UniProtKB/TrEMBL annotation:
Binds 2 Zn(2+) ions per subunit. Belongs to the metallo-dependent hydrolases superfamily. DHOase family. Class I DHOase subfamily. Zn(2+) 2 binds at D147, H174, H227. Catalyzes the reversible cyclization of carbamoyl aspartate to dihydroorotate. GO terms for molecular function: dihydroorotase activity. This is Dihydroorotase. The keyword Hydrolase applies. InterPro entries: DHOase, DHOase/Allantoinase_Hydrolase, DHOase_cat, Dihydroorotase_CS, Metal-dep_hydrolase_composite, Metal_Hydrolase. Its EC number is 3.5.2.3. Pathway: Pyrimidine metabolism; UMP biosynthesis via de novo pathway; (S)-dihydroorotate from bicarbonate: step 3/3. Keywords: Hydrolase, Metal-binding, Pyrimidine biosynthesis, Zinc. It comes from Actinomycetospora atypica. Zn(2+) 1 binds at H53, H55, D147, D305.
Length: 431
């Protein structure tokens, strides 16, 4: 028998309080005697968050994260769908591996897990992977990326875009010209020079963004730029939108990570590898340009680049440490701190950049939907007035490499609902 739930006094998108009713996984008209009432006084309802950029590490990196622990972190962070990047071991470059990750996601059932397919075999940058076979697998892959590596060869990138177009898929590029970042450890600038760390120049990212926008325009294909980190990339994207793409069938979208909205290159001054990430943290002028670009739509959405690493990979000297930071459980709070508290986005804007737009970029039909009768009951309920202190050891991930350790952040996720089922209640994963 169907049960009905009333979510009482909730504020959709931060607007006026109302009651939402849920039955059989969808939002329905008011019901006289609901089976369950959840008091949501003071809470904001957002459509469930969608992350286009997550590293779940399974298969092969289970000492840092698994589909189960990463799904728990995602649900606790308010996410209802995540895209799992293919730099696993073996890589997600074949139908069998993407299907494995997709099935594990369904077994765990806390969040929709969409495996991203590799563009090239083994992320080796030499031969295209079986993109068509991955698209045809039960995982239905529609996003391809070599994330962690750039598809550096322009001819291979062109072929990938053309092939993706025929599959109605998007290529997500990790924009880094590897010829310009050999040995790079931190943003190329005065801070890295002072610390004696080899620099990662902004132009290594910006030149690939420009090149790939042109390749996408010529191919009439869909390109997504991962983790945009510089003011120059924003200007290239703005130019592509205004001058290059009109009149073509191409689409170019872009994401920014929470850590690039909040943290700057000076974080490396403590030489703590928890602050080492790819692309590197940039100077404050970039951070502020990224916030403005997210507010005005030149950057389309937020993606976490959740990158768990085992202790051995981080508890070492800077140069040997692996790049990457946890992000799933802190993303919404960092967006609240950088975009809402600064007045640059309201909660409707947060719904747009953390749910609606990423769902549209990935072509998800049943996520990022309006909070309205007849729509899926896939929701995140947020306490905008809460403040909490981040403790890596208390996060659901196996790894604890959060750059926000000990930091007090605003806004917390209280409940998460996936198609009418609570995945998180009162800040805890539902059994
Ligand atoms: N973003 C990161 O710093 N790390 C990513 C991959 C990458 O290097 O982009 C990871 O998989 O750890």
């Amino acid at each position: 028998m169907s049960t009905t739930t009333r979510i009482a006094n909730v504020r959709p998108y931060g607007e006026d309080p109302t009651d939402l009713y849920v039955c059989d996984g969808v939002l329905v008209d008011p019901v006289a005697d609901p089976d369950e009432t959840v008091d949501a006084d003071g809470l904001i309802a957002l459509p469930g968050l969608v992350d286009l950029h997550t590293h779940l590490r399974e298969p092969g990196g289970e000492e840092a994260e698994t589909v189960a622990t990463g799904s728990a972190a995602a649900a606790l962070g308010g996410y209802t769908a995540v895209f799992a990047m293919p730099n696993t071991n073996p890589a997600q470059d074949s139908p069998v591996v993407v299907e494995h990750v997709w099935r594990r996601g369904r077994e765990v059932g806390l969040v929709d897990v969409h495996p991203v397919g590799a563009v090239t075999v083994g992320l080796g940058g030499e031969r295209l992977a079986e993109m068509g076979m991955m698209a045809a697998s039960p995982a239905g892959v529609r996003m391809f990326s070599d994330d962690g590596r750039c598809v550096n060869d322009p001819l291979l990138m062109r072929r990938a875009l053309e092939y993706a177009r025929s599959l109605d898929a998007v290529v997500a590029q990790h924009a880094e010209d590897h010829r310009l970042t050999v040995g790079a450890q931190a943003h190329e600038g005065p801070v890295a020079a002072r610390l004696g760390l080899t620099g990662w120049p902004a132009s290594a990212e910006e030149s690939i963004v420009a090149r790939d926008a042109m390749l996408a325009a010529a191919a009439g294909a869909r390109l997504h730029i991962c983790h945009v980190s510089t003011a120059g990339s924003v200007e290239v994207l703005r130019w592509a939108r205004e001058s290059l793409l009109p009149g073509t069938s191409a689409r170019v979208s872009a994401e920014v990570t929470p850590h690039h909205l909040l943290l700057t290159d000076t974080a490396a001054e403590d030489y703590d590898p928890v602050h080492k990430v790819n692309p590197p943290l940039r100077p404050e002028a970039d951070t502020l340009a990224l916030r403005r670009a997210l507010a005005d739509g030149v950057i389309d959405c937020v993606a976490t680049d959740h990158a768990p690493h085992a202790v051995e990979a981080k508890d070492c000297e800077w140069a040997s440490a692996r790049p990457g930071m946890l992000g799933l459980q802190t993303a919404l709070s960092v967006v609240a701190a950088t975009m809402v508290a600064t007045g640059m986005l309201d909660w409707r804007g947060v719904a747009r950049v953390c749910s609606e737009v990423p769902a549209a970029i990935a072509g998800l039909g049943d996520q990022g939907r309006p909070i309205a009768v007849g729509e899926p009951a896939t929701l995140t309920l947020v306490d905008p007035d809460a403040r909490w202190t981040v403790r890596g050891a208390e996060l659901a991930s196996i790894a604890d490499n959060t750059p926000y350790e000990g930091m007090e952040l605003p806004a917390s996720v209280v409940h998460t609902m996936l198609r009418g089922r609570w995945t998180v209640r009162d800040g805890k994963v539902s059994e």
